[in-house]
Amino acid sequence: MTSSTTGGAGALLTATALRKTYGTTSALDGADFSINPGEIVAVMGPSGSGKSTLLHCLAGIVTPDEGTVHYRGHELSAMSDAERSALRRGDFGFVFQFGQLVPELTCVENVALPLRLTGVDRKTAEAKAVEWLARLEVDTVRGKRPGQVSGGQGQRVAIARALVATPRVLFADEPTGALDSLNGERVMELLTEAARETRAAVVLVTHESRVAAYSDREVVVRDGKARDLAGMAGAA
Amino acid sequence: MIKVWIRDLLMGVRFAVTGGRPGWTRTLLTGTGVGLGVAVLLLAASVPSAIHAGDVRDVARQYEYVEDAPATDTSVVVTHVFTEYRGKTVGGMLLQPDGDPDRTVTPPGIDRVPTKGEIYVSPKLKRMLDDGDGKLLAERFENAKVVGTIGPEGLSGPADMRFYLGTDTLTAWKDATRTERFGHNTADNDPLPPSMLVLVVVMVVVLLLPIAVFIATAVRFGSEGRDRRLAALRLVGADSAMTHRMAAGEAVTGATLGLLLGGLFFAVGRVLVEKFEVFGYSVYSVDVVPAGWLAALVLLLVPASAVMVTLLAMRKVAISPLGVAREGTDRGRRLWWRLVVLLLGALSLGFFGPSMRGDSTVNEWGIAGGVLLTLVGVTLLLPWAVERVVGRMRGGPLSWQLATRRLQLNSGLAARAVSGVTVAVAGAVALQMLYSSVELRDRSETGQDPGRATMAASHYDVEAPEALDWFERIRKVEGVTEVNGFLVADLVHERAKPDEDGWRAPHQVRIADCDTLRLLIKTDGCRDGDVFLTSDYEEEEYRPEPKPGARFDLHASEYAEDEQLEPLWWTLPKNIRPATTTESPTGELSGGLYVTTGAIDVKELRSVWLEAMLRTDPADRDTVEHIRNLAPVTDRGFQAYELVSTTNSDEFNGIRNALFIGAVVILLLIGASMIVSTIEQLRERKRQLSVLVAFGTKRSTLGMSVLWQTAIPVVLGLVIATGGGIGLGVLLLRMVDESATDWFAFLPLVGAGLLMIALVTVASLPSLWRMMRPDGLRTE
Amino acid sequence: MSISHTLLGLLEAGPRHGYDLKRAFDQRFGQDRPLHYGQVYSTMSRLLKNGLVEVDGIEAGDGPERKRYAITDAGITDVGNWLGTPEKPEPYLQSTLYTKVVLALLTGRDAAELLDTQRAEHLRMMRELTRRKTGGDLADQLICDHALFHLEADLRWLELAAARLDKLAREVGA
């Protein structure tokens, strides 16, 4: 395997030999993964290949049956729920296909949420949230509830929320899956731009190559194994 | 740390009050549900204080009794009087000041003792006298001038019909008491008889338990939405402690709103309470004050249990950042521990039951606990039964299939909504059975026979010549068609031996014409001049047997110290004819001498007791009042009443109706919550519904599926409730040594339950039609 | 598409006569345009000259000369290099890629690896185009998008082929 370029000492998040079974179906079967600070890695693969499970394991949402996930030298499965939650609050951000916003809260409140959970007072948190909404070109919807905005706007709000606490890793699972291609491209541009500015690493799960093209490197998940494509290209 | 807690709780509060119309509806519904529960609990907590306040005032208006107290300037001669007016008891006192009326002591509520021709009345009585309803009553007061109303401090409640009538005919220490003080504690309250106590205990449990269940259900309104929201928060990094705190904050908000609304409902109920009257008791609003510790308990326990219920419910749900997973759905519910609860309840009823047969003490706590456990056990059976029954359902028409599959997905939700119905109906069925039996027993005890006489009037202290006038006067009253009157005289046998006090036991002799005697005894014919001795005459030690030729003193008086008249002897004829007593139309059965009017000189008798059995025109409903008005209220010996074969069981009917209304109100509350959850479910399935419509599913099919979805759990709940209720009823009846008479007590309640199904379905149909519009296919 | 590499690859499975080579080629890859025998002959002579194949034996007979060719070690290395090198991403690649995949399967090489390598190359190209697009004007964007959509179609084909490798291996083996 040609993965010597990644997973070195400088890696931010490393997974080794992950195995995860749901009932009788095996989702991960010895998958390895690694990402460096500020790197954008696309995780590709056909549906049911286990790419979402890989993301969930990396983020500590799902505990693998076997194998380890290390984040900055700490093993996730050894952490308590509270510690992992704290990690999600401070170090990780999430963008999913849809439905991650809290329907009761307005968009600006949704974005301010991670800050408020870490103890920032409301005013400061919401000011920062407005800033981020502006950055993602959706400050016009700040007072609306998620049910009242379009899909593209909702995803931008979700990205703002994922990045507002300046996480070290942004987990994005099919962030453009529910959008048309034009909207999807814009969302990807904004996402990668913002991630690069904040130096956040991005784990980008997608089955679309045009979305994956926004990454620095691709990993293909097939039959529960992850395969790093880095270093394979470049001959031509 | 505390700051973090407060932040999380406040976040929960925020979720409870925002979220657009569905969010608000949910919170409001929770609040209303909890509020109604709280109001009922607060009212229940006020019962002791209300009863106590009434008792205190009742004691305060009793006069102090000091034997042979002499007259002073402030003393008053007083006696209780009662009369009945249109089925209600009107009670009061006759007052006769010894000195200056302005200086005389007064009972509470009036500032001056009325003199002859003056009367103080309670506001309720005043209204009656003022608007003409009380015209006949005013006559009975000899049209005394109303000089004022009695203040609340002298009344047991707003509906108290009470008066203080001035008079000058009382004689202290003969027919009245002299007192210088009111407010003397005279009597203790009689303890309730055991069967009544059981009834009351069961009623309290039966009414409060559905309230508790309802509060628990109300707190969980919209919990699915909440769980999804909390999952979204977990994703942003809330740990599970935070989510629990937020859920707690949310629950507390609903509960607090509930407390506020409950306070409001309570305040309204408190004002309305003056309009109600139960068993002739009524309560002043100001007396409806929840007992401090009970109110504190409600204030603490309701939010606390809201949080508890929420957290317990959350234990069964794994809220992960990726979503909500419900546990225990594959495991299947277990039966045994539900049966254990039921069995424990039945056992404790059996255990605490028999002990009260011997002595009349009742272990209220034991019984309450038993009833509680039994009802809870019955209710616990429901989720199990729903799961079992629904899980086995296969096939059937499409609407049925849609409904059963839906129920199979989450049978717990359906069972939860219906558990209140089960508790309420089971309890009500048991109570109805208990009531019916007690009621029937009381009914069989009247013994009166309205077929032979419709009314009776009596006077226990009349001079004999006057007595005959009384019969005449009664005969003349409008509506009276026939009067059968007899006199009861106490005659002393010549050879009766005086006891240590010089008192000689009299013979009771009933004197009437032959027509009247036939109502009282059975003989081989009767002619004027006959004397009869009944077969059940009982001999007594001091009283010689009435043999032919024996002499009786017509002038002997009951009061030994009264002026003694010369004896006037009446001799029993040679031929005393045998007779057997029959039950009189008034239900009396008295053995002894029966004498026709021709056999004795009635005019020579002294004090007698007269009784008249009347036939009246049933159309004239005021006849009884006219008869009562033959004597003023000051003439305490006279009374008239209507004869009924069964007790005119207004009270029982009242309780039965109250119980039924209570159960229906609870059913309505539960129905409302079911409507809300049905609509909520429909909204969630909007897209699927549109798809079904898109490929041609008929409206009626979907409508029927909503009907089934409501009907299946409710019908199961009703079946279990009926079975459980009858079982509990039988246990309770066994406890009070009665047997079940009303096996069909459940029918009206089951009817109400079925009506509720229809109501819920009909109420959800408009939203169903709306959801079924094809634009539902659009994703938002 | 490189016919010489394809023929070499076919030889790797075992020595064949020229005519056999043509038949094998036509059967697997020649649906649209069958190979002329002359093409086989000239290709073989060039390969012989370059030392990538050798003559394994000659059968005398009635028909044309029947030389049996076998692949040399150098030939095997050459096939390996060819298969291992991703094609420059461009439209209408599938015939070459298909040939490569089948040959990889025939010669027992890792076809998945081959596909992944190609995929990585495609993605690298797409990444480049995406970068150019984000910085460029509307004309750039439109041009890049055109290329991106084509590359995406290829990539989808690559994914599909990867997903069906097992099935293809069974058919090729049969």
From TrEMBL, chain A:
Pfam families assigned: ABC_tran
Transport is among the record's keywords: yes
Gene3D superfamilies: P-loop containing nucleotide triphosphate hydrolases
Species in which this protein is naturally found: Streptomyces durbertensis
Keyword annotations of the record: ATP-binding, Nucleotide-binding, Transport
Key word Cell inner membrane present: no
GO MF annotation list: ATP binding
Origin organism lineage: Bacteria, Bacillati, Actinomycetota, Actinomycetes, Kitasatosporales
InterPro entries: AAA+_ATPase, ABC_transporter-like_ATP-bd, ABC_transpr_LolD-like, MacB-like_ATP-bd, P-loop_NTPase
Domain named ABC transporter: residues: 13-236
Protein name, entry field: ABC transporter ATP-binding protein
From TrEMBL, chain B:
Pfam families (alphabetical): FtsX
Record keywords: Cell membrane, Membrane, Transmembrane, Transmembrane helix
Full protein name: ABC transporter permease
Record membrane topology: Multi-pass membrane protein
Species for this entry: Streptomyces durbertensis
Superkingdom: Bacteria
Database matches in InterPro entries: ABC3_permease_C, Membrane_comp_ABC_pdt
Transmembrane segments annotated in the record for this chain: 196-219, 251-273, 293-314, 335-353, 365-386, 413-435, 658-679, 706-733, 745-769
Ranges for domain ABC3 transporter permease C-terminal: 202-316, 661-773
Membrane as UniProt keyword: yes
Subcellular location: Cell membrane
From TrEMBL, chain C:
Domain named Transcription regulator PadR N-terminal: residues: 7-75
Entries under PANTHER family matching the protein: NEGATIVE TRANSCRIPTION REGULATOR PADR, TRANSCRIPTIONAL REGULATOR YQJI
Matching InterPro entries: Tscrpt_reg_PadR_N, WH-like_DNA-bd_sf, WH_DNA-bd_sf
Annotated transmembrane regions: none
Protein name, as recorded: PadR family transcriptional regulator
Lineage: Bacteria, Bacillati, Actinomycetota, Actinomycetes, Kitasatosporales
Organism (species): Streptomyces durbertensis
Coiled coil location: none
Protein origin, superkingdom: Bacteria
